[in-house]
Amino acid sequence: MDAFVPEVAPPPLLECCDLTKRYGATVALDRFTVSLAAGRIVGLLGPNGSGKTTLLKMIAGVAHPTAGDIRVAGYEVGPESKALVSYLPERPYFSRSMRVREMIAFFADFYEDFDAALARDMLARLGVPEGAPCAALSKGTVEKVQLTLVMARHAALYLLDEPIGGVDPAARDYILQTVIRAYRPQSSIILSTHLVRDVEAFLDDFILLRYGQMLLHAPVAYVTQGKGTTLDAFFREEFRC
Amino acid sequence: MLGKLFAQEMRALVKPAAIMLAIMVVAGVVGIGCIEATDAVSRAAGFASRYVNEASAASNLTVVLVMAALFCAFLVWASLVAVYVFIAMRFYRTMFTDEGYLTLTLPVRTGALVTAKFCAAFLLAAVFTLAACALASLAVLAISDGDGDMVSVVLSLLGGWSALTGSGGVASSVIGVANALVSAAYTVGLAFLSLTLGAWWARRHKVAAAVALYMGIGWVISLLFSIVGVLAMMGDTGTASFMLGTVSVMQTVVNLAVAAGGVALSAYLVRAKVDLS
């Protein structure tokens, strides 16, 4: 007789439970709970100060929750989760003295899922010389290099914090195309922005945040089909001053 | 992973450190040359003392050489201080500023991260400490006209254990140098801990807070051992000597504990408490 083997569903790619972050008396994130499956592109939407960056920082492991729990593919935040998460913060994080080839070597050294050939190819198409030190590159180019390295990892979860904030429209197109090209069905992307119009065509789901509280987590179709409007118009209506 | 982290840290530290070490060694060698030259000029002045002008010129030259030797000694000391400042700055920059976003998202244990940084920093500090000891020994040899015993006496003072081992001799010199290396580990460990505490506690002026913590903790430890040292000297001569030696040994043990504790506590705070701004 065959033994009965119960089918165990894989854990969600990202699970946040009652996640709270306080900075003194200020509540940056308040009992945030979400469960995210693989294969989704999620827009983390909200005005400035709504807790988007704080949430991404805690998932990436550079900030610590005051309360609550985060799990990435079942792992608590730590080396195992960091191996699965590819995080693009909103600021440049390479030393100005580091050369592009050293950045590639650094990623190749520490991330098993990093595709150095893909990174070189993407940088060559951008026209960034590998011998150039970070200090010699413009702010926009540094951002593109950083995005390239982050997206050249075959990670399970990409966290992109304001990747298109403060860049020109051409760079915005490059960034979004890079993100779309890197997307694989077994991975998910969380992209924080308040430039909703630029990203809504690519999104599967969205999360609305205000004052650290989640207002809504739904598929984009909930707005486009259910309410017959665009996500951008919905966002503007929700956050009208 | 510890090996990779250590190699990465060494790659970043080696080039600037090599420049600082070169400055230190050149300053030391020039300083020793000035000491030797002072000797030669003094001897020459003895012969020229019959001629007032030559004697006066030799005297002026001696003053210039002594000043140059002192300046070189200052440069050696400044290089030693500079390497610690450089180590502390790199630790702070790569852990608690924008570069921390790269460092702290690496898939490695925080303990391994801080340990690798400590090992690389200590290795660097040790090289500089040994270079400073070697230059000090050569300077003592130059001043004492090649008296090797004087070198042993000076090096044994670094340990403060001479009360137990007797000043002078190879053993006390080795203990002195070993104690200087323990002090280097203490300095690095305490600097890491102070910077981490500063990054955690202070909302603004985190580096200033770290400097205040470093000086405060160092001052408290020194004060405690000064008090214990004074109490130890209150007995008769034989007992006092033994007690002073014992206090020195205790201080070495405390220095090692501060170094190890600093690394462990820094790793814990980075893993569980410190948020990047």
Automatic annotation (TrEMBL), chain A:
SMART domains: AAA. GO terms for molecular function: ATP binding; ATP hydrolysis activity. Keywords: ATP-binding, Nucleotide-binding. The keyword Nucleotide-binding applies. InterPro entries: AAA+_ATPase, ABC_transporter-like_ATP-bd, P-loop_NTPase. Residues 14-236 form the ABC transporter domain. Pfam families: ABC_tran (PF00005). It comes from the Bacteria. CDD domains: ABC_DR_subfamily_A. The keyword Oxidoreductase does not apply. SUPFAM superfamilies: P-loop containing nucleoside triphosphate hydrolases. This is ABC transporter. It comes from Adlercreutzia hattorii.
From TrEMBL, chain B:
This is Uncharacterized protein. It comes from Adlercreutzia hattorii. Keywords: Membrane, Transmembrane, Transmembrane helix. The chain crosses the membrane at residues 12-38, 58-87, 118-143, 163-195, 207-232, 252-270.
